What we know:
- This protein is an alpha+beta fold.
- It is built from twelve helices and 14 strands.
- The chain has three domains: 51-214, Nucleotidyltransferase, domain 5, CATH 3.30.420; 217-279; 289-373 and 393-417, 2-Layer Sandwich (Gyrase A, domain 2).
- The strands form three sheets. A six-stranded mixed beta sheet has the order 3-2-1-4-8-9, with helices on one face. Strands 10, 11, 12, 13 and 14 form a five-stranded antiparallel beta sheet that branches. It has a three-stranded antiparallel beta sheet with strand order 5-7-6.
- A hairpin with an 8-residue loop joins strand 6 (147-153) and strand 7.
- The radius of gyration is 60 Å and the shape is rod-shaped.
Amino acid sequence: MTTWQDASQLQLDRLRRAWRGSALPGFLRWWGGELSAFVPVRWRAAFAGGERWYAIERHADGWRLRRAGETFAVGEAGDADTAEHRSAVLARALDEADPADRRIALVLPPAAVLRRRLVLPLAARDNLRQVVGYDLDRQTPFRADDIHFGVRELGEGGPEGRFVAELAATPRAGLDPLLDELAGLGIHPDRVDVAEGPALAGVNLLPPARIPRRADRRRRLNALLLAVIVLLVVACMSAWLHNRAVALQAMRDEVEAMRGDAARVKDLRQRLTDSAGASGFLARKKTDAPSVLPVLEDLTRRLPDDTWLERFTLNGTGQIGFQGQSPQAARLIDALKGAATIGEPSFQGTIQSDPTSGKERFYMQAKALMPKPEPVAAKPAATPASAASARATPVATASTAPAAAVGQKEASRANEAR
């Protein structure tokens, strides 16, 4: 055998030992036996399979064939008969078994076999036959070239780091003629074993070169069926994955369509929100901003007649800023104290004299105290013309009050000029 075959055979031997050493084979045998009790006898006979062992033994007057484990013979071929007759007798006896299941063991008498119990290290388990073959000269009284031997691992527990095996050896001079004679009768044994009553000992003395090569058609059929099963499983899985992919793509298309609808709805909602916000912007600005007219009214009433303003500002936070001229600007803070709409008046920067008018130029800041008006709900039936007039009314009022204040200031300046 090649190196690759040796390695593969070594791996197979390891797997076989692991399988035999596990509890699964015994469980499967028990389970199969329990289930077979429910199967009719005819069906059991029709579907019965597996190896069927026959034991062939050499006696003084000829060959005797029996089933392994049984004592009565199923066929006998005497030396007095011709070789053709003996071959036909043995062939008829073996015809009861399927050739694919039929196995033949040449059984040697115990006296013709040397058997020894060996204790070996665990490292020798992977290549047991080769390891024992190196030590045949010490374990047997024969030379290694003069004997055929077999070795098997026993199920006994050995010392730590070791295991127990059995060596069986027989002289070549006694075994080779028997094998040649059986070959002439058309029988090629699958093993050479030792008798233990009607059963077999389980050790194989057959040389590896004489092991028959059998074409196991059932194994090939099983391998073909296994390949078909694998292909069918792969096909089923592929079909399942394809169906899932198709369903997933359909779901994605539906989600994309719904996403487009959702985007359009979101856009419409945003446009509606923007429209509502734009329509309420002016109302909110009017509601949030402080009223200008009360502040201007209060400021006009409290400032002296000889004081006028050049600039007035009121921002949305209620901060008031105004700049103007007055003969005595320092008195303006006292004048603005107690105002209902103006609070915290203060000067910003310094008071400076204006050489043109002879008055003091000032810049003041204050805070609008006028409370914000309550928001008025918009009438649903308001027309665009009425809304425009409503928006124009505060502007006109606000512009009228500053005009009156400016006219009053001009009159005061005319009186001073006189």
